[in-house]
Design a protein that fits this description.
With 257 residues, this protein is an alpha/beta fold. α1 runs parallel beside α2, α5 crosses α7 and α7 runs parallel beside α8. α3 links the parallel β3 and β4. Helices cover 39% and strands 15% of the residues. It has an 8-stranded parallel beta barrel with strand order 1-2-3-4-5-6-7-8, surrounded by 5 helices. It has a single domain, classed as TIM Barrel, CATH 3.20.20. The chain has 11 helices and 8 strands. Bound molecules: 2-phosphoglycolic acid.
Length: 257
């Protein structure tokens, strides 16, 4: 398999005001002053901050992503934000199917699939999230759940160039708990094999599969160099530039201190 360039994406979730943009400026400065991580870097602030974040990041190597999109282009959908609107605001990617949307908003695999197609339509990369709940994990259903989510959520049109899969065990998100590196390796290898069945070996061998769930500077080196892990989707630890850079620094050579 050819080397896949890792991606570390920060998901700010429903956090961040104009005053928080200083963290983005701080991150930009750290990436210029300190060793540059050998990885693609992205920040996904709330939609309200996209335009201003795009200004802060203009000309930097930090990409801008969004956290969700409506499947349709436009119309009478109060509160909805289309993928085209996100692209217009400066985003180049969008997270779809995050477990918080699947759980809080009842999003189905079919809806997530439609949102990924909307992302492609607008020229955005789709970061498609999958992950089992704690109960499913305890019942030994993890791989079955993931197979179903991938079959339902990943469009036939998905290509490695515009699609990223994020494996986020629901029980690991925001909990400080993480799977063992061996479990992460098994699950990521399984995800790649399902993607191969869905899209073919060529796409699956080039597709980035991120791990997400309680990634911190202290555990990043343990989790991110596992086979078939091509980066991270980071929640809480992406809100502070120092923590986020601490995670990115595992991709620096020599490691940043
Ligand atoms: P966490 O969130 O890093 O705070 O666990 C990860 C995510 O939900 O993307």
């Amino acid at each position: 398999m050819t080397a896949i360039r890792p991606l570390v994406a920060g998901n700010w979730k429903m956090n961040g005001l104009g005053s928080t943009l200083g963290e983005l400026a701080d991150l930009r400065a750290r990436m210029k002053a300190a060793p540059v991580p050998d990885a693609d870097v992205m920040v996904c602030p709330p939609a309200t901050l996209l335009t201003r974040a795009a200004e802060v990041l203009d000309g930097s190597d930090i990409a801008l992503g969004a956290q969700d999109c409506h499947p349709l282009v436009s119309g009478a959908h109060t509160g909805g934000i289309s993928a085209e609107m996100l692209a217009d605001a400066g985003a180049t990617a969008v997270i779809v199917g995050h477990s918080e949307r699947r759980i809080d908003h009842g999003e189905t695999d079919a809806l997530v699939n439609a949102k990924a197609l909307a992302a492609y339509r607008a020229g955005l990369t789709a970061i498609i999230c999958v992950g089992e709940t704690e109960a499913q994990h305890q019942d030994g259903k993890t791989l079955d759940v993931l197979r179903g989510q991938l079959q339902g959520s990943v469009p036939e049109e998905a290509r490695a160039a515009d699609t990223v899969i994020a494996y986020e065990p629901v029980w690991a998100i925001g909990s400080g708990l993480t799977p063992t590196p061996a479990d992460v390796a098994e699950v990521h290898g399984f995800i790649r094999s399902v993607v191969s069945q869905l899209l073919g070996e060529g796409e699956s061998s080039a597709m980035r599969i991120l791990y997400g769930g309680s990634v911190k500077p202290t555990n990043a080196s343990e989790l991110l160099f596992v086979p078939d892990v091509n980066g991270a989707l980071v929640g809480g630890a992406s809100l502070k530039a120092s923590d986020f850079y601490g995670i990115l620094s595992v991709y620096c050579d020599p490691p940043a201190t």
